[in-house]
User: Which sequence fits this backbone?
């Protein structure tokens, strides 16, 4: 009993921490622009595919790029950094195409939401057109020489935890620490917070707002791509649409934590990860609805989320 | 002519159904609420009809049309009730929160439909009895239904409730200050959309012959949203036009792809890249036609043009 509890707790922490870094991508963009980037889920998918390709994985028989493969196979760590950077660059392109023109025109935020949805549809279906809808699995030795599971208990009472989960948890914690430091303790983070607080005032004070928006999109999409790689390598890439489903769950995470709140995104991710881990096996079919059920409940009791601020609405 | 109707009957009815689904998303949008719940209510309405016609009414042979209408009524009523229940808490939320809450609603319904026994699980419900011999027969129900719903929404835009919707869309707090109860009107708009989606779902379940959890997904939300956004978000004619055009688009693309002389890659892209084109149209549409193709100004200009030409 205790063993199972501990095991599920670690699993929950691990998946929860991926939710957290993925949701942080949403949160960063939201805190600066007040807009949810619906293309974030598609970026997540892209990250996973990029890593798969950079590690020398080849494609299936469907799609334009059938059986093609990248000539070099990079080690996992390098491939992850490269693919997340690529995902970040795609995010910058998304900002240029779908966000900036509308921002220049001061368009209704809902319109921007819709155009980001459009970008997501394009990316996902382009992927499907190019590489087909197959499931891609990372090679078994993805994480180098790590054993499949690590025992946290004693020999007599083993508590095995997949080492993938530990890698994911470790990477997520490091990323969260770096990000928290960057935003709270550097001059650069201060400028970013200033833009988030009030873009007009920030620009009057000599901060180049557009540059920070681009940078925010880069960091956000970097995190999205990284989350995609981590999830894809621990389970598998279940076709181009898997990021969309994950993206919807990410929305539940940020609303649960409070839109625009960075600690909120982390807390929301961990809560949803843990709750999902403790769904009884008999009801595992309903697991995907848990996050949305939680979201609905939180919207009823506390619409601003667990750690969100309540904004005054003015005419 | 008969040949034409037999060949394209399925497509024609689909186009009308698409137009009505566009309208069901347009209704909450009239009050400025981006709700993506339509596919959820559409799926629910379909399940109501599918379960009633296969389990409750034991009919052999052709399915009687009055029963079909009864099912549509029931589906509308059930979706309407659920719309009020979901709408009242969800519509306290503004803007993006509502969109997210409705996405959550659609996802919960989808997971339920996938796992409950009564909905047939992942397989769904099939062999739903047919009231008509050929797909084109459904035109007798879908056509009047579209005319009726378009007319109702056309009228709605010109009465007190519709004006209240517009006021809320332009500025909710100002409307509130003017004595309009925003929650009441937002729930009204949302519920009307839910009823329409449910009725269309009930008809579609018979029309498609099978019904499963794939009918109500996030993808479907985006497709209906495209109908409205590209068609036009400011008048009833927009979603109708958008729904008709975009449901026909895959067929049109296939026809273009079949013309000889096209390079092979282009033909293949036109056939398989339908959703890529959809996505591009959404992006381009929001950038260049923020109010959609059909705008009230466009309609007025035409009317004025007609009037002046008739006096001359």
Assistant:
């Amino acid at each position: 009993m205790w063993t199972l509890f501990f095991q599920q707790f670690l699993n929950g922490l691990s998946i929860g921490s991926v939710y957290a870094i993925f949701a942080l991508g949403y949160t960063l963009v939201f805190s600066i622009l007040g807009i949810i980037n619906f293309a974030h889920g598609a970026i997540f998918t892209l990250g996973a595919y990029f890593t798969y390709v950079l590690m020398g994985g080849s494609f299936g028989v469907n799609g334009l790029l059938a059986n093609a493969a990248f000539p070099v196979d990079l080690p996992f760590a390098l491939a992850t950094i490269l693919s997340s950077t690529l995902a970040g660059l795609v995010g910058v392109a998304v900002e240029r195409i779908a966000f900036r023109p509308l921002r220049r025109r001061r368009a209704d935020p809902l319109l921007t939401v819709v155009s980001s949805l459009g970008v997501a549809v394009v990316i996902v279906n382009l992927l499907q057109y190019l590489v087909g809808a197959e499931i891609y699995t990372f090679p078994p030795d993805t994480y180098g020489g790590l054993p499949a599971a690590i025992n946290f208990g004693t020999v007599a009472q083993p508590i095995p935890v997949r080492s993938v989960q530990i890698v994911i948890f470790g990477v997520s914690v490091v990323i969260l620490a770096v990000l928290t430091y960057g935003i709270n303790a550097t001059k650069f983070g201060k400028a970013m917070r200033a833009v988030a607080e009030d873009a007009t005032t920030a620009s009057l004070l000599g901060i180049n707002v557009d540059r920070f928006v681009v940078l925010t999109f880069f960091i956000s999409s970097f995190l999205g791509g990284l989350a995609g790689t981590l999830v894809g390598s621990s389970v598998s890439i279940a076709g181009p649409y898997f990021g969309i489903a994950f993206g919807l769950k990410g929305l539940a995470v940020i609303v649960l934590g409070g839109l625009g709140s960075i600690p909120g995104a982390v807390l929301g991710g961990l809560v949803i990860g843990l709750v999902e881990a403790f769904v009884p096996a008999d009801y595992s079919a309903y697991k995907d609805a848990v996050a949305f059920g939680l979201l609905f409940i939180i919207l009823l009791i506390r619409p601003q989320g667990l750690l969100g601020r309540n904004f005054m609405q003015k005419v | 002519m008969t040949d034409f109707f037999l060949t394209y009957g399925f497509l024609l009815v689909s186009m009308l159904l698409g137009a009505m689904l566009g309208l069901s998303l347009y209704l909450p949008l009239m009050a400025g609420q981006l709700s993506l719940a339509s596919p959820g209510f559409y799926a629910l309405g379909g399940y109501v009809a599918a379960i009633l016609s296969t389990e409750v009414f034991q009919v052999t042979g052709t399915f009687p049309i009055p029963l079909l209408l009864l099912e549509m009524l029931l589906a509308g009523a059930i979706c309407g009730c659920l719309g009020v229940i979901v709408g009242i808490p969800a519509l306290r939320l503004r803007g993006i929160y509502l969109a997210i809450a409705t996405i959550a609603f659609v996802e919960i319904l989808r997971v339920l439909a996938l796992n409950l026994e009564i909905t047939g699980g992942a397989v769904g419900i099939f062999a739903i009895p047919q009231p008509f011999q050929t797909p084109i027969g459904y035109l007798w129900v879908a056509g009047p239904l579209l005319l009726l719903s378009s007319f109702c929404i056309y009228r709605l835009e010109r009465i007190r409730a519709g004006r209240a919707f517009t006021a809320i869309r332009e500025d909710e707090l100002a409307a509130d200050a003017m004595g309009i109860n925003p929650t009441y009107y937002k729930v009204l708009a949302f519920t009307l959309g839910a009823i329409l989606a449910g009725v269309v779902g009930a008809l579609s379940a018979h029309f498609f012959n099978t019904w499963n959890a794939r009918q109500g997904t996030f993808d479907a939300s985006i497709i209906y949203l495209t109908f409205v956004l590209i068609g036009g978000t400011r008048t009833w004619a927009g979603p109708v036009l958008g729904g008709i055009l975009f449901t026909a688009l895959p067929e049109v693309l296939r026809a273009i792809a079949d013309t000889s002389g096209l390079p092979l890659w282009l033909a293949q892209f036109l056939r398989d890249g339908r959703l890529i084109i959809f996505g591009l149209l959404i992006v381009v549409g929001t950038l260049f036609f923020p109010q959609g193709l059909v705008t009230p100004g466009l309609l007025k200009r035409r009317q004025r043009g007609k009037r002046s030409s008739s006096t001359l």
Observations:
- Chain A touches chain B through 48 residues (CB under 8 Å).
- Chain A has a mean pLDDT of 85.
